[in-house]
């Protein structure tokens, strides 16, 4: 008898699992239900539809051959019975049925299954604040909402949008609204920097400056207390620091897994939500699988369970589930949390743990940032890439990496290489320094920037390099009248001399080429010294020379390049 497979959810994981299972087991009867109007679409592309990069909404629903993935597509081409406007209400595990409701007619019925897949995804988190139910307050996590806000933009009904939350979707939507539609945009983030779950503080400042350069106002360390309305529609956002006029508010403070239907059926779930699954993506009921935004997964670095709502993971898990529905033994071992995002001119990516996450997991971790060229320095078009490495001091184990660049492909390539290492082993700094990557001048330096990042981190952990963050360097600079630091610029004189002339006695231009001849005469032994150069490399060499002279120094990680990316260079 042909097995009867029922899939709840038809956006990402559901369609992948259905198509894979049907290919491997053509005799199976597969039904996929979804409560929405649209199925099998690229939800991560929503900001690019709103911003005009994807000109038509159906572009998010089509195959690479231009065919729309609708109910007829799945029925005729995939052999899957896809049913929209159908909400799953409850699961009867004893009878192996799911009670569903037609969202248009209210009619209820029971659908039987031999194997069940829960792909119910997630829902946007809406804070319990006054005014959250006003008109023009939304979250953009589905095509219906995306279409509505795009139509408002096209009709020029939005003048000032406030986005609450500086995660992926929030920042992507901010760029979309400001760039395509010229809308005034304010982003409010409760924590102290944007992308707080993905970026270190320093890189968060680079991202903030990049957004501000296109006119977006970014407010960090600020919480929203209330939304005020007029005639039933939002008109103001009240924070703990100010009141902001707004005619559109978008919540982007994360999502919560839609796991209630599983919990109500007695399926094991995490205390904070999310279905628990084994490596075969089976729930505590072996006839029920789950994946995507509705599950928690094992972090391969910390060993802890984590929640990672990413479309890429949902698709990979969907294939595993589809294989196993057909009798296979495919596994999904866990995640290292690889991600990437496009901002204004900058692209960011990362994998593994941030410093905060690493320390929370019990590692004695530090982070080391550096700047390096993504191509050979003599090749036209090279840019400086920012790399941040998180490492355990004692074991030298690499725990995470982040990158930022104006070349998205370049920074993603470096992150992907480290992500692969993190998945299959416990890489050390030695592994990172010696990671074999492709080389030709149009693509990389002979010592690739990711190798150089490993080398810099090794020097810091070994005690050779006393590096401080750009934020720490700027704190020293702003307090220079009290701390008596001498700031020594190792760049060529044309870069450092103008600053020295503006700040005599506090800032010294001392090019590395002149260092041996001048250092002993011009650098006092009774003042603390802060070194800076273009990217940190020349200042590191000067630091070693001064150490031989008995002078301890600090070196600003990433040099003036990092300061420029943060918007701090003008403060000199």
TrEMBL record:
SUPFAM superfamilies: FAD/NAD(P)-binding domain, FAD/NAD-linked reductases, dimerisation (C-terminal) domain, Rhodanese/Cell cycle control phosphatase. One of its GO terms (molecular function) is oxidoreductase activity. Residues 481-572 form the Rhodanese domain. It holds the Pfam family Pyr_redox_2. InterPro entries: FAD-bd_OxRdtase, FAD/NAD-bd_sf, FAD/NAD-binding_dom, FAD/NAD-linked_Rdtase_dimer_sf, Pyr_nucl-diS_OxRdtase_dimer, Rhodanese-like_dom, Rhodanese-like_dom_sf. CDD domains: RHOD. Gene3D superfamilies: FAD/NAD(P)-binding domain, Rhodanese-like domain. Keywords: FAD, Flavoprotein, Oxidoreductase, Redox-active center. Its cofactor is FAD. Belongs to the class-III pyridine nucleotide-disulfide oxidoreductase family. This is FAD-dependent oxidoreductase. It comes from Mailhella massiliensis.
